[in-house]
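hey m, so remember when u said the tokens were messed up on ur end? i reran from scratch. heres the input so u can diff it against urs
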Amino acid sequence: MSRGEVGQAFVDEAETDARLAALEFDGARAWLDEARCRPMEPLAAEVWVTDPGFTHVLLVRHRVRGWVPPGGKVEPGESPRAAAMRELFEETGVRAELMAEPAAVAVRSYRADWSATLGLSYAAVVGREVPLGGEPGQPVAWFGLDETWESVFPEDRDRIRAHVRRLAEGRTVGAG
């Protein structure tokens, strides 16, 4: 997706959210600075969903990638935040308000023959009693924060855990 396809306003939003993200991985902000000088590669957006007790995360079983947060490609004319909300609903059946501060920004390749992709991770808190739906052949499940799940992105486990624990500490501090 080039800058022309995305539109400058959405590129600007992606840049703003990337700079506001609570966590940065893979030199994402430096990658973004370099990307300004060439066409923007595809953008990805996902949602790190946790429960109100900060003990579980919601994941989707992708046929190739294993258990991953709900997410996908930002479509032309769509903001990263809107894409994250759309993907969350499509893949889990859950509609949720995303937290104001993006959870993380990272750069990764989703396939060996694809160029690197800037990915924005947003966060949401959803009760585990909410009915789950999603796409056929792509199960959705809650995992305990300390459980291990199979994924082609094993580093995501520690990244998501760190963010959820950060949220839990913030809620504890704010509750006093």
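this time it looks ok to me. The chain is about 35% helix and 25% strand. if urs says something different then somethings off w ur setup not the seq
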